[in-house]
Amino acid sequence: MRIGIGLPNHVAGVSGAVIGSWARRAEERGFESLTTIDRLLYPSLDSVISLSVAAGATSTLGLVTNVLLAPLYSTPVLAKQLGSLAACAGSRLTLGIGVGSRADDYDAVGVNFTRRGRILDEQLIAMRRDWSADAGYCPESVSIPLLFGGRSEATIRRATTVGDGWVAGALRDFDTQSAFAERIRAGWQAAGRAGTPQIHASVNFALGDGDVPQQGRDHLARYYGFRPEYAKLNVDDMIHSADDARAAVRAYRDLGFDRLLFHPAVASIDQVDLLADAVL
Question: Does the keyword Oxidoreductase apply (predicted)?
């Protein structure tokens, strides 16, 4: 199982200067990939731009959106940005895509929140068309793996028919996640797809002494504050010790997941070393 670490782009007030140094440290310490969390109305850094900075600071790490809220964006512009990033990064990009659950993000860009699933379906067709050099958007054709977040029937349909797999949420609900992963694998086979789907999971973490774990919990409580019950689940589930981090790796490896992404809940760069010491 591949192990990636998140960039702290989603931590409120994060300095943009940390992204490049964080990415370089992650590559030096042996992580397989870097990932971002996407959100609009929050004092955070844009996912695509953050991954672009990380791409320029590294040479081998995979680049993963986990997840990108694609319906918030203009489809032709997003296709060009992602196609450009994939071309510049040497095909290191994997797109985790979802629709999100914050209506205010959609209101801010004038997109109908209730149509976000249908918009995503339309975007998938258009972006894959636009990633061909023949479409005139990109200088070269690129192939970008698409993984879908969520637990709806639409998620299963997208992941097994037009996508490349599924991304589980950050809560360690192992039984539910394992059962859904099996539905993805079964749907993949039923669709007559070759090979196997990619199955990713993610967790939140804040390692260290003193008040670092509490800082991480405070971040999660604020970030998910629009849904208080869900925020509490994330706070309670946050990884705060090396033993807990290693246990998560073992659990997802035993469940047959292909990649585990650790999202930092604090933006201090020593989190890269602390996590590497624990799980690599």
Answer: yes
